[in-house]
Amino acid sequence: MKPSFEEVMSKESDAELLKIVNEQRDDCQPAAVEAAERELAKRKSQEQTNTVSQTMEQKKQVVEAKAQEPVVASVKNNANFGRWFVIIGLIIIGAILPFHYIPSRLMVFPKDNLTFSNTFITQKDIDKLVDRYNQASFFQKQAINQEPFVRKLMEKGIIVEVK
Fold it and tell me: How many domains, in total, are found in the chain?
């Protein structure tokens, strides 16, 4: 003969009874759950029930909070990544802006003014400047010679005036 649910539940610990009532309620037969509830009431362990239930609820909250932590951390990491991206970009611009770069001749020299114009100078840019100078009138050549960029190129010997 099989033992009744009351007999089985009377042998279980309070923690096991609480587990059946709270966590395994959907997995057990309704009669078994009722027997566990009656056994808990019979033991007059209502205070323990509340304490254990609160402890289990606190553990659930801790687990849920930990499950959400990586999401928060990745959002912080993305924010930090964006901030670092901006900072590095500003450093690069600050390093590039005050100089003329001629990669084909491996030359770098300072600008007179902080502008983005003529930061990277290619051979094609130099050829265009020489063509513009060669096609200019006397007064236009004088004006071209007064441009700070042209004066820098003449100082460095990149372009020379042949008379």
Answer: 1
The answer to whether residue 113 is domain-embedded is yes
36: nearest Cα among 19, 50, 57: 19
Segments forming the whole domain that contains residue 103? 99-155
Q: What's the pTM value of the predicted model, to 2 decimals?
A: 0.45
The strand pairing partners of 100, in sequence order, are 109
* pLDDT tens digits, 39-66: 888 876 556 556 767 777 888 788 777 7
What's the DSSP call for residue 104?
G
Asked whether residue 129 is assigned to any structural domain, the reply reads yes
Length of the chain: 163
Asked if residues 56 and 22 have their Cβ atoms less than 8 Å apart, the reply is yes
Phi, psi of 123 (to 5 degrees): -60, -35
Q: How many helices (H) and strands (E) does the chain have?
A: 7, 2
DSSP 120: B
Check whether 139 has a pLDDT greater than 90: yes
